[in-house]
Design brief:
By secondary structure, the chain is of the alpha/beta class. The chain contains 19 helices and 27 strands. Strands 2-3-4-5-6-7-8-12 form an 8-stranded parallel barrel, surrounded by 5 helices. An 8-stranded parallel beta barrel has the order 14-15-16-17-18-19-20-26. The longest helix is centred in the middle third of the chain and has 20 residues. It is globular and about 75 Å long. About 3% of the residues have low confidence.
């Protein structure tokens, strides 16, 4: 089955959560269906959902007999224990030959290469593909389709389609996340239930109060976005050159999804049959009347602002399909002597069975302004990362700043950091900066796949930031093949995965030992909730000072900073501190201890640098003497 208009093939891609749902959906007005197996996908939290291997085999045969396609989601991050499971599962999938695998973790690419598999691979939305360099890098690695970032507009997609022949998939309807793909780490750090591993407990759906400049704003659910609905704008999606129109909904009921597919399929058919006579509002009321949340076009036509935030059915804290509770505001785990001792015991047990040549360790620090950078040089910090995302009121590092710091760096290494999200213009701007400054820099801190290829010609080390989500040693191996020289362990990695990944990786690894790394990175402007009301209704005429804002729950206050691109960075309520377990980490194959310094004053950061440098010189560490109250071990609190 296929649809064509103006030499363009259109695919309506439908979700199925179970084989029973699939049997209804495959007869509906769609061209392809996607679903997950019992392992390794982004919908692992619901019992009774997903497909057995027998179900997968039967579903592929049924779909192919109807001339339709099947895509399998193998799209979560893989733990070390998942790697053998992944080998067996990929070999099975290679035998039954679906029409493609939707993947997130580059470990899957490494395994398909090692196993000589012949499966088409699609880049999941969790790869957060958002610029041409990323698309071309993935194309060169054998990816045949990308699911573009949820934050991409149709205008941006239309431009990309003029520059590449890559197949483009884009969300058309369904549940959306507030954060950029793969850049929400909070569920993993707080509960040990990672959103990047298909187990999200949705802290974005909590009821938060907003506090800024000692004023409170009675917002309701400021991170809870509406469901996407592009039904009235299918002609614009076709005009943008989108190849596959994706409906989200693997956790929704059969009747709801079948009706939705048939409405969208009929609308596409009507437009193809008679574009000039097309009625884009026909049957739209049926979608509105049966919606689960209110509806939005998300980022398809630019930033939607507060209009994208949902109220309908929020506040229950439940799945609307089952009534089961997601989660409630929960305090980040405390550091206790018992926890520190349990970690030491587990590491000692691991070391008893593994021979590790521990490297000499050094301190690194990520800084967000010139004053911090100069202080870190004066302290003799080995590695200084100049952050690419700068928290206001500070400004990005300029060419003159970089030249000054590299000239006065002493024995420190100066590494230029890149932003997590980079438009094609940003890529060009940083190329211009590197053309001038690369010869004096000691490396680049890369944040996404496109930046790897873009920076590969400068002859300086490329270090992977935690935004790459390197969760296992197979992914590290693949990144080494792409030119990475060192990487930062995922901030969601639990102790078992850190032990295994750092031990078996052929790349040097770094771990964040202190600070408040970003746990929710979003295009959405939370500061808009604090704009004053005006008599004329024109709020855009008012300048809003971009100081720190806090999301408040009974369990804690979460700082939110805005960067130079107007993006918001939510930090955990407590500082991560691995200081109490440094003696246990010392024998591990970790080369660098990083301090995330951007949220500190220069004085606070100087103190932290002193503390950790002294610790490297084996000065006595009392488990909880320095860092207990107001601190957490983050994901290492979970075994």
């Amino acid at each position: 089955m296929s649809r064509h208009i103006n030499h363009q093939t259109i695919e309506l891609l439908a979700p199925a959560g179970t084989f029973d749902i699939f049997e209804g959906i495959i007869e509906a007005n769609c061209d392809a269906v996607y679903f997950g197996g019992q392992v390794l996908n982004m919908r692992m939290i619901r019992k009774g959902y997903n497909f057995s291997n027998d179900d997968i085999k039967k579903a592929i045969a049924i779909a192919h007999n109807l001339g339709k396609k099947v895509y399998i989601t193998v799209n979560n991050l893989l733990s070390h224990t998942d790697l053998q499971v992944a080998k067996d599962y990929l070999l099975f999938l290679n035998d039954v030959q679906p029409d493609g695998l939707i993947i997130q973790d580059l470990a899957v690419l490494q395994l398909t290469k090692e196993l000589s598999l012949t499966l088409p691979l699609h880049a999941s939305v969790m790869m957060n593909v958002h610029n041409l360099a990323m698309i071309e890098t993935l194309k060169n690695q054998g990816i045949s389709r990308v699911v573009l970032s949820r934050e991409m507009s149709l205008d941006q997609i239309k431009y990309l389609k003029t520059q590449t022949d890559m197949e483009i998939e884009y969300f058309t309807h369904g549940d959306m996340c507030i954060t950029h793909g793969s850049q929400c780490h909070y569920s993993g750090m707080l509960f040990g239930m990672s959103s990047n591993r298909g187990r999200c407990l949705k802290p974005c759906r909590w009821d938060y109060l907003i506090k800024k400049n000692n004023q409170h704003y009675q917002t309701k659910f400021p991170l809870a976005v509406k469901d996407m609905c592009m039904y009235p704008y299918l002609p614009e999606m076709i005009d943008a050159g989108i190849d596959s129109f994706k409906i989200e909904g693997r956790m929704r009921q059969k009747a709801f999804i079948v009706d939705l597919i048939n409405l969208y399929g009929d609308a596409i058919d009507r437009y193809i049959n008679d574009p000039t006579g097309y009625d884009r509002r026909k049957d739209f009321k049926k979608i509105v009347d049966t919606r689960k949340r209110d509806l939005s076009t998300n980022y398809a036509f630019g930033k939607p602002g507060l209009a994208n935030i949902n109220q309908r059915y929020e506040g229950t804290g439940k799945f609307y399909s089952t009534g089961k509770v997601f989660s409630a505001p929960t305090e980040e785990p405390e550091i206790t002597d018992d926890l520190v001792d349990a970690i030491a015991h587990k590491i000692n047990g691991y070391l008893a069975n593994h021979t590790i040549q521990a490297p000499t360790k050094h301190i690194s620090v990520k800084v967000g302004n010139m004053e911090q950078g100069m202080m870190a040089i004066e302290k003799g910090v080995n590695t200084i990362y100049l952050s690419g995302d700068i928290y206001r009121p500070h400004q990005p590092f300029t060419k003159a700043d970089v030249q000054y710091l590299t000239k006065h760096k002493g024995n420190s290494r100066i590494i230029l950091g890149l932003p997590k999200m980079m438009s094609d213009l940003d890529m060009l701007n940083y190329k211009n900066l590197l053309d001038v400054c690369a010869k004096d820099l000691d490396g680049v801190l890369v944040t996404h796949l496109g930046s790897l290829s873009a920076c590969s010609n400068y002859g300086i080390p490329l270090i992977g930031d935690y935004s790459l989500n390197i969760y296992n040693h197979k992914a590290a191996t693949y990144y080494k093949g792409l030119g990475l020289a060192q990487y930062t362990l995922s901030i969601e990695s639990n102790l078992s995965d850190i032990l295994h990944t750092s031990t078996h990786s052929i790349l040097p690894s770094e771990i964040i030992v202190h600070g408040q790394p970003c746990v929710m990175y979003m295009e959405h402007d939370l500061f808009a909730n604090t704009k004053p009301s005006t008599d004329n209704g024109d709020e855009d005429t008012y300048y809003i000072e971009d100081t720190v804002l806090h999301l408040v729950t009974p369990a804690g206050e979460y700082p939110v900073y805005k960067d130079q691109y107007e993006r918001c960075h939510m930090l955990p309520s407590k500082e991560i501190s691995l200081y109490p377990i440094l003696p246990s980490l010392e024998p591990l194959n970790i080369i660098s201890y990083r301090i995330e310094g951007m949220s500190y004053t220069t004085k606070q950061l100087a103190y932290l640098i002193d503390v950790y440098q002294q610790a490297l010189h084996h000065e006595t560490i009392n488990h909880l003497q320095h860092f207990s109250e107001g601190h957490t071990l983050g994901a290492l609190s979970h075994f």
